[in-house]
Amino acid sequence: MEVKLLRLLNNREQNYPHQLEKQYPRVLKKIVANWESPDADAIFMDLLVADRAGRQGFPADVAADIMYLSMVHARQFAKKDSGDPWAHVSEVFKQEIELHGVAFSLAGFVSAVESGRHDLVALFLSSGADIDTYDDRLWTPLMIAAFNGNEKLTRLLVKIGASIHHKDNAGYAPLHWAAFNGFAKVVKLLLTEDAVVDVRSNFGWTPLLQAATRGHLSVSYMLIEFGADVNASSKDGWTPLMKASANGHLP
Q1: Is 48 helix (H, G, I), strand (E, B) or coil?
Q2: How far from 226 is each of 61, 100, 219, CA to CA, in Å?
Q3: How far is CA 189 from CA 19, 118, 175, in A?
Q4: How far apart are CA 19 and CA 240, in angstroms?
Q5: What is the pLDDT of residue 79?
Q6: Domains and CATH numbers, the chain
Q7: Biggest distance spanned by C-alpha atoms of the chain
Q8: How many whole angstroms separate alpha carbon 18 and alpha carbon 61?
């Protein structure tokens, strides 16, 4: 274990890049050796861009470790006292993102998430962009990924620290939207990461109520297996069974 790096991570072993060290020890040593170098951003970007000639990219768990280290680095060397939340970002990352035809802005970041562009999402996050940034709906990247059923992106965002408890303008959490659209794999992922199974929206809706309303049987069963209250009602009195019946989802 790299002692210097562990100190940079505030001695939090749970955040240590174990998979990177295990599978690519030379890469980790290079990152640590250049941590305070002007070349650090270029090194991170080169590691994260998978579309270089002859490159296949890193395994997902290793890529997540690299991305997390890049985020830590960006926060550590961020410019202070600036009113622009994007001012701290290295020109290296900004130029690479714009080369892909995406504006370096919140709108560009949201667009990359919505279109499932894992490569661009990685660059935005590694540049130091806030992982829990949100649009005018209060939708974070994780919420968008969950709504779209993007399991790979959801897993990545959760691994590097995205909040699974964030709520949007109406009080809905990522689990609500994954359940609403019937994305069982994403629902299971969020639940195993300790998402609150009976989290309520501003209207009292639970994820089970969302799933039952749309007739998503497998997701409904999964939520119940994780302890969802089958009798939990919304503020206007609807229970999952009542909604399922009203919408013709009962045999």
Answers
A1: helix
A2: 26, 41, 11
A3: 20, 18, 9
A4: 42
A5: 61
A6: 1-130 (no CATH), 166-251 (1.25.40.20)
A7: 65
A8: 9
Q: Which residue, 100, 108, 105, 111, is CA-closest to 84?
A: 105
What φ, ψ does residue 89 adopt, rounded to 5°?
Answer: -75, 135
Residue 14: the pLDDT is 83
Q: Please give the DSSP secondary-structure letter assigned to residue 134.
A: -
User: Which tokens is 102 given?
Assistant: 């995406």
Burial class of residue 39, CB neighbours in 10 A (0-12, 13-18, 19+): exposed
Could you tell me the two tokens for 243?
């909604």
Residues near 99 by Cβ (< 8 Å), separated by ≥ 6? none
SS3 state of residue 251: coil
Instruction: Report the Cα 202 to chain-centroid distance in Å.
Output: 23
- Mean pLDDT, 10 residues at a time, the chain of 251 residues: 86 88 94 91 83 66 89 76 60 84 89 90 85 93 97 91 96 98 98 97 98 96 98 96 92 71
What pLDDT score does 80 carry?
58
Instruction: State the residue for tokens 């989290």.
Output: 199
